[in-house]
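User: Can you predict the 3D structure for this chain?
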Amino acid sequence: MDHTMTSSVIKQWDQEMLLKILNKIQDVVLVIDSNTTIVYANEAYAKILGVPIQKVLGRKLSDIEPEAAVIRALHTGMASTGRDYIKSLGLDVVGHVFPLLDGDRIIGSVAIFNNITEIVQLTSELQRTKGVADYLKEQLNQVEPLPLSFKEYIGQNSRLKETLHLAAKVAKTDSTILILGESGVGKEVLAKAIHHASRRKDKPLIKVNCAAIPGQLLESELFGFEEGSFTGAKKGGKLGKFELAHEGTIFLDEIGDMSLAMQAKLLRVLQEKEIERIGGTKSIKVDFRVIAATNKDLAGMVKAGSFRQDLYYRLNIVPLVLPPLRERKDDIGAIAHHFLRRFSKELGYELILSPQAEWVLHGHDWPGNIRELQNVLEHAGIVCGGPIIEPQHLPGYLLPSNPGKQVPANIYNLKAAVSRLEKELITAALAHNNNNRTQAIKALGISRRTFYEKLRQYNISIDN
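Assistant: Here is the predicted structure, written as structure tokens:
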């Protein structure tokens, strides 16, 4: 049954009754004809909008508010419900608009709405207050930002981040540091980051690989020698690594491979801060900071008698443990993206991991850690010859031999793949820009609002 009514078919007493009813309604009721002329406004119009009814009756709404929802209802013949904004009055309103029909002909339209400007303002103020509260909370929970030298470390793994923050704190001191971790986890990278974040950053960082130098040569390498001190000694003698590291840092890598005899000599140097060249007769004062690293269990070696206990305690003042890659697989995607970006520049085309290839990477235990991942991706980038790295481009030993461990069928799930990629790109962008939000947002090409929504969505934390 059609209940639509127009003034041409309503008796006078019915019209008066209708107007009384409309004037009792607490919401604004506005009626326009087919030319957008305002033909009716109830008493709530003046009360809520603050405009006398006589001032608007007979005027064209298209001249006052050309984008009004009630005009759209007139033109489209479609009813709608929702929020609108009255530009001429600067008010936010919410309500319902619908066309008036005479048969199939649109003869006008009606708007029933109320002013929600105060509610919108309160909501905006609440959001602002919450934003300030969130910001203050973030500031209170803020940990010391990592120095720029730590940007080589990519990922959100909690264990790694704890180690990096401890490293950043101790970098400002001259304390001896012992870096523990398997081969390939990035011990040398961390040593460089610590040095470049220290007060000695403008002085040399001298590396000595204790495992690569034969025992009989390690002493001359560390302490130097005088001319003629032994057969084959270089004319004029040679400065040792400790002298070269004067006022800087000496990095003793693979210190667990040092002989007990050399350990005793090293302990003396650490205690006295002076060295004596082979064949020399005088002590030389040196100012250095020691960072040692090993992939061995020094505590176990102390118990076994193969590492000096006094040297162990001298080195183990601030131990930093780097977790293996198999214990931080959540970072594989971001680390892979970092390496692929570097290889892309070298190869001249962009490299992207397919979902299947990424699945294979996540399934591997990575005994060679990050160094192994880097080599695998470099291999795949060369073999694939194009932008997409598929499983067959990876070294054969990574591919599952067990039929039950084949690539799952749902690996092509677009939503999951997009989410994975988004998280990896955001993590990589933050790492590349040393957790600078503004620079990361610019690099990602997204709005600040979207950026923070994604951080919450993927539970990505930022340290500064």
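Residues 168-322 form a domain with the Rossmann fold fold (CATH 3.40.50.300). Residues 1-10 have pLDDT under 50 and may be disordered.
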